[in-house]
Amino acid sequence: MNFDIQARWRLYITDNIWINITDTTISTWIVGAVLILLAVVVRVKLKKFKPVPETRFQNIIEALVEFFDNHVTTIMTKKYAHFGAWFFGLFLFLLLANISGIFGLRPPTADFATTFPLAFTTVILMQVIGIRYNMKKGEYVKEFFRPVFIFFPLNVASDISRSISLSLRLFGNMLGGLVLMGLIYGLFPRLVQIGVPGALSLYFDLFVGALHAFIFVTLSMYFLMMKVPETD
Amino acid sequence: MLNYVYQNLSTVLSVAPVMGHEGAVASIITASIFGAVIAVLAGMAPSLMQGYTAARAVEAVGRQPEAAGQIRSTMIIGGVLAETGGVYGLTISLLLVFVNPFVDMYLDAMAAL
Amino acid sequence: MLLKNLLTAINPVRLTAGSGADLAEYDRVLGLDINTLYDIIFIWINVIVIILVLSWLLYKPVRKFLNDRKDRIAGELAKAAEDMQVANDARAEYEGKMLAISGEREDILDAARKLAGEKEVAIIASANDEARLIMERAKTEIEREREKARDEVRTQIVQVSAMMAEKLIGGGMDEATKSRILDDAIAELGDAVWTK
User: Fold this and answer.
1) A28/C47 CB distance under 8 A
2) Given a contact as 3+ CB pairs under 8 Å, which chains touch C?
3) In a designed cystine with A65, which of A41, A146, B111, C62 is the match (CB 3.0 to 4.6 A)?
4) What pLDDT is recorded for position A231?
5) How many domains does the structure of chain C reveal?
6) Is C9 within a domain?
7) Among B80, B87, B98, whose Cβ lies nearest the Cβ of A211?
8) Which of A148, A211, A143 is closest to A177 using CA atoms?
9) Cα angle at C183 between C181 and C187, to 5 degrees?
10) pLDDT given for residue C190 in this prediction
11) Would you call A176 and B88 a contact, using CB atoms and an 8 Å cutoff?
């Protein structure tokens, strides 16, 4: 049973440094192409959106954006709601990437090289929001020394470990789903492979994928809100 | 059984000149399978505690049925956070079973000799 | 094939399919070597581009559309509430005026009725007076007629009795005596006989 990621091509930048174009890179490109296509279609059709939606497409897009807008405004108050733009893109990308197991791709999030940059971006955004909104009176730096002065390395390590935990959670779930689905497909003879594993795929791919996309984004937003002073 | 494990671990270092590389690799794989089984045992605690979380959530809903939606979301978020420990164990065991790094490390070390 | 040759010809970055063994050393599920770092950076750039494009094309315009719609509906609701308020005020004012009008009507009617009542009394009184006058005049007329008739009848009876008396007495009287007797008879009789 082969669950490996395989490199398909190599881009040589110099003779000793190369970039591997792997399965996950190709999956990321395909998912990205679908998403960019969707975005362009929505942008073109936006002029024809009516105040009371008549078409199904407009309804779906409005429902998605409004649901996410409510979610962001609930967790991060209106003051920081402009961070929702990044998290919406992240949410859609993760949603489509986790589901792409059904469509025959190797999910890009089943590779640590995909989940780690996303989690690391969250850590960078945490520092950004802390510096931008918390820097006067040096609150942002003082937070690191908060309970006792000695806790400074522990606070830094807790920040970094948040990124590792976020990435490993997503990676482990996706890899577990991939391995289990592969094993179950291998368990049944060819004829039974059509209907029966699909029911389990419904759980492992769809539900877990959507849930973890949502959880990743929600947890990132909670971590961001931890760096910001409590509103009165 | 623990003696068997200890014997296998020690054969990795000493058995190569006698049993050849295949024996050593077999021992490494045996040890990794034991490790993988112990790692999956880490999935027991999240399951127990998530059941406890669900019980408390049901209790809270019974006490205040209007907040059912919020209680449901909070329960799911808490459950996923608690799941992380079990997922760590699952990842380690999957890595040990399918893409064992120790075999490669051993082969590289033996090839360097 | 053609695409690969084209790419290799025009690009300084060599894109090769690589040989099986060369690429196969990459096979991994989770490895932590330098390849992973290059992968991380490359996929990082990819994902950031995808997410930024998505948020700029999809999220911001649709959110602006939704916010505009929400503001417009809020504005329309506020305007509708305002119009309703104005309409209610106008209606209250008109109803007040209607009540005042009916009150005024009542007053006018009362005054008219009072006036009519007074006039009625006055007219009736004057009619009564006139009727009484007419009756009194009629009564006076009747009395006069009666007196006249009485006088005539009295004169005739006295003449008749004078004639009879003359016949009885035999014609031996002259005119002066006759009229003296007549006048005495009338004066004696007076009203006592004729008022029965």
Assistant:
1) yes
2) A, B
3) C62
4) 65
5) 1
6) no
7) B80
8) A211
9) 115
10) 67
11) no
Q: With an 8 Å Cβ cutoff, are B95 and C29 in contact?
A: yes
Q: Which residues of A touch C43 (CB under 8 A)?
A: 24-25, 28, 108, 111, 113-114, 117
Instruction: Using a pLDDT cut of 70, give the percent of chain C over it.
Output: 82
What is the Cα–Cα distance from C189 to C196, expressed in whole angstroms? 13
Whether the CB of A215 is below 8 Å from some CB of chain B: the reply is: yes
Tokens coding B100: 């064992």
| Opening angle at CA A112, ends A107 and A114, nearest 5 | 65
- What pLDDT, on the 0 to 100 scale, is given for residue C8? 55
Distance of alpha carbon C2 from alpha carbon C120, whole angstroms: 123
Q: Is residue C170 part of a domain?
A: yes
Residues from chain A that touch C59, judged by Cβ atoms under 8 A, are: 65, 68, 84-85, 88-89
Specify the length of chain B in residues: 113
Which pLDDT tens digits describe chain A residue by residue (232 residues)? 678 888 888 877 766 777 888 889 999 999 999 999 999 999 998 888 777 878 888 888 889 999 999 999 988 888 888 889 999 999 999 999 999 988 888 999 998 999 999 999 999 999 999 888 887 778 888 888 878 888 888 889 988 998 999 999 999 999 988 888 888 888 888 887 777 777 777 777 788 899 999 999 999 998 998 888 876 5
Q: Which residue has the higher pLDDT, B19 or C38?
A: C38
Q: Is residue C15 part of a domain?
A: no
Q: Residues, chain C, total?
A: 196
| Rg, C-alpha atoms of chain B | 22
pTM of the model: 0.73
Domain that residue C165 falls in: 144-191
Contact between chains at B94 and C29 (C-beta distance less than 8 A): yes
Q: Check residue B49 and give its pLDDT.
A: 94
Residue with more model confidence, C112 or A203:
C112
SS3 of A21, please?
strand
Q: Which residues contact A17 (CB under 8 A, 6 or more apart)?
A: C38
In a domain, C169, yes or no: yes
Q: Are strands A18-22 and C14-16 parallel, antiparallel or unpaired?
A: unpaired
What domains sit in chain B, N to C, each tagged with a CATH number? 2-96 (1.20.20.10)
Alpha-carbon gap: B89 to the closest alpha carbon of chain C (Å): 14
Closest to A110 in 3D by CA, of C5, B87, C65: B87
Q: Which one of A39, A108, A171 has the shortest CB-CB distance to C58?
A: A39
- Listed by number, the residues of chain B in 45-84 with a beta carbon closer than 8 Å to a beta carbon of chain A are 76-77, 80-81, 83-84
